[in-house]
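Late entry, written up from scratch paper. The run itself happened at the end of the previous shift, but nothing got recorded in the book at the time, so transcribing now.
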Amino acid sequence: MAAKGGILFLNPMAGSFIGADESELRAKAAEEGFRVVEITPKVDVPATVRSALDAGYRSFIVAGGDGSIHHVVQALAGTEGVLGIVPIGTVNHAARDLELPLTWREAFDVAIHGEVRQIDTGRVNGIHFLNSVMVGIYPTITEYRERFRSTHSKWRAYMLALRLAMRQFRHVTLVLELGGRVETLRTQLFVVSINAYDLTQAGIAAPKIALDDGHLTIYSFGFMSRMQFIRAAAKFFRGKIEEVEGFRRIRTPKLRIDVARPKLRVSIDGEVRDLAPPLQIAAAPASLLVRASRPAGA
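Output as recorded:
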C-alpha cells in the first residue's frame, strides 16, 4: 500500500523564489505530510527518489526549474510514482507544456490534488528528458548563463551568455542515422524534442502540440553565418522559423548521432553534459505520471 504524503524537492537557488515564499511552501508541504529535501550538489536526487519509492511513497513534487525536474524524472520514469510541479525556475518549459499555473500557490494545489496524466519522455543514452536534447551553440549558452546567475538577474545572465556564445559561434558535424538512412550535417544548432513544438507561436518558449504522441521531433538547420543565425533567431521569436532556408522538421521514434570526437557536449532539459558517442535517442511513450490539472469541478 502506498504511503501517505511524499517528498517535495526544493531548489532554493531557483530563479523566482524569495524567503517568505519558501517558508510558506515548507509549511504547506508539512501540512500535507511531505518531507522537504533541498536540491544541492551533495544530494543524490535519483537515489532519494528510488529509496522513497521502495518505502511505499508515490507522490513527488519539484519546486524548481526544468533542471530540477530533470533529476527527479530519472528515477520516476517507468514507475508508479507521480510527479507534481511547482514552477519557480527561469523558463519553466515543463510547467508551460502541462498548462500548469505559474503562481506557486496555485501550482502547489494542482501538485497535491490535480488529476494524474500519463505523458511521454525521451531517452538519450539511458537519460530521460521531458523537453529536448540540444547540440551546438545552446550548451555553450547554458554554461555561461549558469556562471552569471549568481551576480545577475536571470534575463541579464541569459543575454550575457548569448553574447559570449555568439562570439565563439561553435558548430558541430554530426553523422545521423535515421530511418535506415545515413547523412552528415554541419550545423550550429540541432534539436531533438519529445513530441513536437508549435513553432507558429511568437515568444522565447514554443509550447508543445502534444505530450503523448509517442515520437521524437528533430529540428535542424544547415551551416549559417552569424548574421544568418541572428536572422533565423529573429524569425523564431516571431513564430516564423519555418521560413528559414534549410530548416527541417522530422518526426521519428528514434535516431542515432555519431561524431568524430570522444565526447559530445549536449544540453538535456537545460542540464549540460558530455556524452560519449554514439548518442542513441528514442521516445519512451507513456513513461511518466504527472499531476497536470485540477479535478473536474474544482
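The chain has eight helices and 16 strands.
(Scratch paper discarded after transcription.)
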